[in-house]
Amino acid sequence: MSHFFKNLFLRSSKLTMAFVLTGLCCSLALADDELDALRKKRAENETVEQKFIDSNIAISNWLDGAAEGLDLFLVGKKLTDAKNETHVRIENSTYSMEGANLTNATSLNVNLRLPNLEEYWQLKFTTYDDTEESRSVKSGYLRQTPRQENYGATVGLFRKLGNIRTSFQPRIGLQDPLKVSHSLRFESILDTKTYKINPKLEFYADADKGTGIYWNLNFNFELSPLWSLTLINEANYEDKTHLYSAGNGFSFGNYINETSTMGYTLIFTSLNQPSYHLDSFSASVSWNQLIYKKILDYQIIPHLDFARAQSFKGAAGLIFNLNLNF
After folding, report:
1. Percent of the chain at pLDDT above 90?
2. How far apart, in Å, are the Cα atoms of 285 and each of 67, 102, 155, 291, 318?
3. What pTM was computed for the model?
């Protein structure tokens, strides 16, 4: 009898162990299924965002690799360990103005850097003339119309003479016939603990507008860790048309957080034809948001314009800029 109960106990123990092992296997299988489901769910939630970031990084790495390959091909050997700063920026802008149709435009800026070829040499491909745009106070603070298409390549030669940065930038406009323009610029920054002075002087020659002179003398004051004030003083003279235009005003900058800033700007524009007069003034508020660092950012700029041609009657407008960087 004792032998019978002993065999029964052993069989029961084996069956119990089998049931336990089966249960553990089922539990592990269910756990694996739940983990797979969680992974799939997490992947689905991150697919669009993560794929966008990964794609941007992959394209940026490809552009840097292509630029470095071209750099080494032209030089024949590696002369510097400086990081390649090749940069591509795609800007899409939408303009809405009271009494005008909604317009949208996209522009491209390719800044090709080849550090081994020459430390201060740059090559840029753009769908617009960025040197000409920089000579307009409204383009810098409140560009209200789409950029004029002007495909071209710019070679930049940069040198520093003491505290003065100099640049010579000839540009070839890819048109029929080809148009060549030149820009010679001198710039310096006086930086103190409470304010900065940024003087600029540029001599330029344009195929359509002839020769000209542009100057800029802006003052920037750090009012607090969150607020800054810029006093704007710019002027441009075109010799061919004897047109002198000046931009004066101020802009308050407000730091919100690491990804967001706001700006409050008032700009007055004056012309010398037929006699020196106030031609227009504009007030604007800008919201600047960085969505992904060095990848995606945008601006929303509502503005109110008062033009002499419209008897200084206010006209409201809205600008939306979306910028993609590689």
Report:
1. 44
2. 38, 20, 35, 19, 10
3. 0.72
